[in-house]
Design goal:
The chain is α+β, with helices and mostly antiparallel strands and about 550 residues long. It is built from 12 helices and 29 strands. About 30% of the residues lie in helices and about 30% in strands. Strands 1, 2, 3, 4, 10 and 11 form a 6-stranded mixed sheet that branches. Strands 17-12-13-14-20 form a 5-stranded mixed sheet. Strands 28-27-26-23-29 form a 5-stranded antiparallel sheet, with no helix packed on it. α6 packs across α7. Among the domains are: about 70 residues, Actin, Chain A, domain 4, CATH 3.90.640.10; about 110 residues, Substrate Binding Domain Of DNAk, Chain A, domain 1. Bound molecules: adenosine monophosphate. The site of adenosine monophosphate has 20 residues, from α6 and α7.
Amino acid sequence: MVVESGRVVGIDLGTTFSTIAYVDAGGQVRTIANREGAPTTPSAVFIQPDRTVRVGQEALRARPEHPDRVATNFKRDMGEKYYREPIGGKEFSPEALSALVLKKLAADAARVLGTIGGAVITVPAYFGDARRKATQDAGRIASLEVMDIINEPTAAALANAFRQYLHAGGDTTKFELAAIATTAPSTTLVFDLGGGTFDVTIIRIEGEQFDVLATGGEVRLGGIDFDIRLVTAFCDEFVRRHGVDLRDSPEALAEIQSICEMAKITLSDRTQTVIVAERYGKRLHMPISRRQFEELTSDLLTRVQISVETLLEDALLSWDRIDDILLVGGSSRMPRVSEMLSRISGKKPNMDQAPDEIVAHGAAIHAAILHMHAQPTVSVAPDGSRRLGTPEVGTAPEPEVPPVPDLFDQSVVDAAKHVRITNVNSHGLGVIVRAPRENRLVNSVVIPKNTPLPTERVKVFGTEAVNQRIVRLRIVEGDLRDPRGCTQIGECVIRQLPKGLPKGSLVEVSFRYDPSGRIHVRAVELKHATVAEVDLVRAAGFAQVDLTRRRDAVSEIERE
Ligand code: AMP
């Protein structure tokens, strides 16, 4: 994609906080503070009664008074096709709410940078296709030119590699990414515990190549779950003392949630704090120690630990093969997190960069690289004019071309062209077919989980009935053989097959994942080369489909 004009930015669209950054002309990565002067903006949207919108800290401040008009945590529902958040009597999709956050970030950045030409937006590596597409849609609704969607851990590893390069004495004005890669750790575990999601990813950096080896985590586990434990403890105590349940009032609950989140953050720095709230003329002053907080949340931390250990086992890696443990996400500031990781790994986790900004920084670096790849190479002629390609001696001078937008020094452009990033798919991708021996529907996985991207895989199936005229392939994400454990993400239909085809006629299905994780499907009936309408319809939330009465499915080919 060629960005027409304007600066390119990287955006970490977080569950609780979002951040925007860019790479300046000299190769320095900079976070852009919002209009209120803060580096991160709460992903919160307040729809006022007159339908005007407030985003960020202002929305959070309005929450205690207007809890039914303030939306938060909508990233968790991104890509859930039928989900709508009711706000003030109207319903909003997670994409629309995310678009409002993106608009605010872009508008605040434009005050500093001028026009925004394009943006890279990050998503948790755990996001499947529907959620990635929804994120892209949110960017488009916000009128942003979405250059790419990349995984948050990849972005963090890229920003970390850049920092290591600087630390080793690298020159920012040269931005030599080949050199950056050689000073970077070879295998990094990115531990990202944010506000609402938990992502753990192993990335190998070899030369200039960033490969995601494996991903894991939990889509619904983050700082908010730690807050809720404090809220529950406080409200239970309020009931015990005063006989009133604050959870019955949305206004009171919203206020307690904010107070408890502040208490949790304080406990990362201090060993003791106090939660105080007053409602209905009744007041509770509840001291809480870090140790008590850690006891209240110990099962959450155990879940985190199990995810990390399972990922290592799945990737067939031991801790001695991990060179760096990179802490990302505001919740990884909780001291218990570092302690647990140190204990199980025997290594000191790395929090050299602000965990709430590192992902946006990596996205900004990726945006800069994409922008440079899209630009023609420019050389400076002896007369000082800038030309396409290298001028040859003795030939007529090439017509002068307009200079590329002056975003980066030429040294930055040249160096960035060496970097490549690869991802893996975080979920298996398969087709629902009938298993002849079991005579039931199963998910036949075509591309297994953690396959490096881009990739293309082909599998052959047989038609289910004599004279079948149509083949309908239900495409799912998931690794389980039982379709109920998978998410249907689309359909691919071959229509108008010739009459009289025997049962078991061969249908070849090829799946192609592009480098950004989008999926393209093609199906061909092999005898007559009838090709499917290549159409991946977005549809999340798989209800079990009863195909038993249908005659348009396919079966697995029997194998000995
Ligand atoms: P992120 O979306 O990555 O910015 O993470 C936001 C989450 O980090 C929220 O749940 C915050 O409450 C939490 N958080 C931010 N700072 C701290 C801190 N110092 N200690 C504990 N949690 C924090």
